Amino acid sequence: MEKKVKTSNTNKKILESKRIIKEEKEKIKLEKKALRKKKIEKFKKTKFGSFVYGVGSIFSDDKNNYSFSEVLVITIIAILLGAFACFSILAIVFKGRNYFKYSKDLDKFYDVYDTILDNYNGEVKKEELVDAAIDGMVSSVGDEYTTYSNIKDTDSFNDMVSGTYEGIGCTIIKKDDVISVVEVYDGSPADKAGLKAEDKIISVDGKDVSGYTVDELANYIRNEAANRIKMVVVRGEDEVNINLVRGMVELPSVSSKVFYQNGRTIGYIKISIFSSVTSKQFRECLEDLEDSYIDSLVIDVRGNNGGYLSSVTEIASMFVEKGDILYQVEKDGKREITKDKTTEARNYPIAVLVNSGSASASEILAAIIKETYVGGYVVGTTTYGKGTVQQVKTLSDGSMVKYTTENWLTPDGNWINKKGIEPTDKINLDEEYYNNPVLENDTQLKMALSLVSN
Do residues 445 and 377 both lie within one domain? Predict the structure, then answer.
């Protein structure tokens, strides 16, 4: 009996506690609601709060509380805010440019574009129309270095100047309806798979390639084939199966060798383009040559039409003293001087080989060796004469506009545009070299080797 009484009392206490907790929760809710209401009333008293609730009331059942003039003012303000929001979106889309100005400027273009598409009696490709229009607009600037490139040409340009691409890493040519391998890049997928120079390609992934052009086969391997490629080549009299795995390939832009003359060891480095990987490859070659204890160096940029300014800057900085002038840039009458900031330098004789095909970055290197480096020679013929700097803008569809932004000047402040750089030691190639381009007939290289070995 006593146990039952105790249980009953306990249950009553529990119920009472639950009731008290429930009441407290209700009080808290009411307090929060009152606090919220107080904040809203305070906000309504502000100008912005009055406006917001005024606009809201227009669409509520309480519209009759406002006069016609109040409704009109609030409506006008709402329209103005909407217009402001619209202009803000247009500003973002058009990147801050004047939409109405551009719309007016392009009215004629749209008119012609629509007329051709709607009325021309024949097939018209929209992409080609736009490409031709942009190309014409850019060409009208009258600067041969301000250009437009479509998607295909842009991809080729990017592969060239980036120094890397996805593929197998070899060079091919077609002769007598046979596609043959000319060169296999060291460390490339083709090299690892065992492909050799002079291999004749007869099939790829079971497809007979005799009817392919070089570009068609290269495009298939790089863009259409699976990641793993099966190739059959003829090597000598044997057919050889090659299994390749496509990968990133670094295009070689630098090659080197050693010459011995007059008891001296002379390093030779050929640069074909100043791509994003050229300075790295150049340093590797230079260090290998210096491990062979070279006494001097010949740098060959004949036929090199330039590339990245940063690449040639990094290479030149390996030779000149810290604080030496590398080049100057000029825009709107203002000049900016770029000096070497590194502590690295060399002091052995250097000759740079140049010709009329040496342009832009090649000319920058030649000018630095001629005007800044102590013990430097420039050998060959007058260079091309490109004294301007370009920037690139990639468009939304992957095409590209390249445009001139400034002029560059030599360390001494000379603008070589359409003039070129005059060699310190001028010499032409003999006619015999063009008929038989071997070392023995290269009079320019012979002079350079003679200058740096005396």
Answer: yes
Q: What is the pTM of this model?
A: 0.74
CA dist 61 and 49 (Å) reads 19
- CA atoms of 297 and 292, how far apart (whole Å): 12
List pLDDT tens digits, range 213-271.
998 999 899 888 889 999 999 999 999 999 999 999 999 999 999 999 999 999 999 99
Catalytic residue annotation: 360, 386, 390
Phi and psi (nearest 5°) for 79? -65, -45
In a domain, 401, yes or no: yes
Find the domain containing 192 and state its range. Answer: 164-250
Same domain, 277 and 411: yes
Rounded Cα distance between 451 and 129, Å, is 56
Cα torsion at 240, 241, 242, 245 (round to 10°)? 180
Asked whether residue 1 is assigned to any structural domain, the reply reads: no
Q: What parts of the chain have a pLDDT lower than 50? A: 1-6, 63
